[in-house]
């Protein structure tokens, strides 16, 4: 039976249904197939990606921020994130994991307060990052996330993001060992997976995947091995990050610019997805 909008809203508040989605999401990290996530930035893109075959929906904090008129980087008001997550979980039937950035606070004690509306919106997973903060701070945040999720009865998949590679922390020759060390700390705190954006070298990926005892998540970037090669190296999850939203924003800008300059209708009507196709995605 196709789940209607009303039913989906009701189900996401039902513990049994949430538990089923959470189990599905965990199983996707243990499958022989690489979990590929084309990160969404609103309910429309989430539904579109689900229709394209996405087995789960992950959000991109950058894409979400831009769509809501905010910069990336822990600047979004939590209530706006929660409202968007609620719209996404109403629109799709697959598990939804949310880029929770750095928890929207520097105080671990406030994590529970910020996470509560995200869980109530129907998320069964989050990414939480260290960014430029000390790893010890993320450890304390993950501990609070775990307590909050367990208290809410949500089997939350916590994907800890380390920015060792993205921010170039320390000397390049130390990045693999530093990543492995942080992974151990985050795992002890309650993390279920490790996200290492910026890591593209095969030898580094293989070394990290073989040591961390967590499903490894990498981000699509130039020079990254193919999906087949990543699977052989031990990677379990591949995220598009903000890449798709960046392409869409660029394409929309170029179309608008050409239309404004020429007033030529052909510029904006060529190659569009049929109206009926889009309507069909959202017809309950």
Terminal Cα span: 12 Å
- Proportion of beta-strand residues: 5-15%
Number of domains: 1
Radius of gyration (Å): 19 Å
**What would CATH call the homologous superfamily?**
Phosphoenolpyruvate-binding domains
The assigned CATH architecture is Alpha-Beta Barrel
Uncertain segments: 1-6
> Can you write the helix and strand succession as a string?
HHEHEHHEHEHEHEHEHEHHH
Mean pLDDT: 95
* Class computed from helices, strands and strand pairing: alpha/beta
Largest sheet, in brief, is: 8 strands, parallel
Number of helices: 13
Which strand order do you get reading across the main beta sheet?
A: 1-8-7-6-5-4-3-2
CATH class: Alpha Beta
Shape, principal axes of CA atoms: globular
Q: Using the coordinates shown, work out and report the CATH topology.
A: TIM Barrel
Helix coverage percent: 40-55%
Question: Helices and strands in order, then pairings?
Answer:
Elements: H1 5-11, H2 15-29, E1 35-37, H3 43-52, E2 57-58, H4 61-67, H5 78-91, E3 96-99, H6 111-120, E4 125-129, H7 135-152, E5 157-161, H8 175-189, E6 193-195, H9 202-211, E7 216-219, H10 227-233, E8 235-239, H11 243-262, H12 265-269, H13 275-282
Parallel strand pairs: 1-8, 2-3, 3-4, 4-5, 5-6, 6-7, 7-8
Helix pairs in contact: 1-5, 3-5, 5-6, 6-7, 7-8, 8-9
């Amino acid at each position: 039976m196709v789940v209607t909008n009303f039913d989906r809203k009701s189900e996401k508040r039902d513990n049994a249904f949430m538990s089923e989605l959470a189990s599905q999401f965990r199983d996707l990290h243990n499958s022989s197939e690489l979990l590929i996530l084309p990160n969404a930035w609103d309910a429309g893109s989430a539904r579109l990606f689900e229709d394209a075959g996405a087995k789960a929906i992950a959000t991109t904090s950058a894409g979400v921020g831009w769509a809501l008129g905010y910069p990336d980087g822990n600047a979004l008001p939590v209530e706006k994130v929660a409202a968007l997550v609620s719209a996404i979980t109403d629109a799709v039937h697959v598990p939804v994991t949310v880029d929770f950035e750095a928890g929207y606070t520097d105080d671990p004690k406030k994590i529970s307060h910020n996470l509560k509306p995200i869980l109530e919106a129907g998320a069964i997973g989050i990414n939480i990052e260290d960014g430029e903060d000390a790893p010890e701070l993320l450890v304390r945040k993950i501990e609070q996330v775990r307590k909050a999720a367990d208290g809410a009865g949500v089997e939350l998949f916590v994907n800890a993001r380390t920015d060792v590679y993205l921010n170039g922390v320390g000397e390049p020759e130390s990045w693999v060992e530093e990543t492995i060390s942080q992974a151990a700390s985050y795992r002890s705190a309650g993390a279920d997976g490790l996200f290492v954006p910026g890591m593209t070298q095969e030898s580094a990926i293989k070394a990290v995947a073989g040591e961390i005892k967590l499903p490894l998540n990498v981000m699509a970037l130039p020079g990254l091995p193919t999906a087949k090669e990543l699977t052989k190296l031990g990677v379990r999850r591949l995220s598009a990050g903000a890449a798709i939203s960046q392409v869409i924003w660029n394409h929309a800008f170029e179309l608008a610019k050409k239309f404004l300059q020429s007033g030529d209708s052909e510029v904006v009507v060529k190659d569009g997805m049929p109206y009926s196709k889009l309507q069909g995605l959202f017809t309950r």
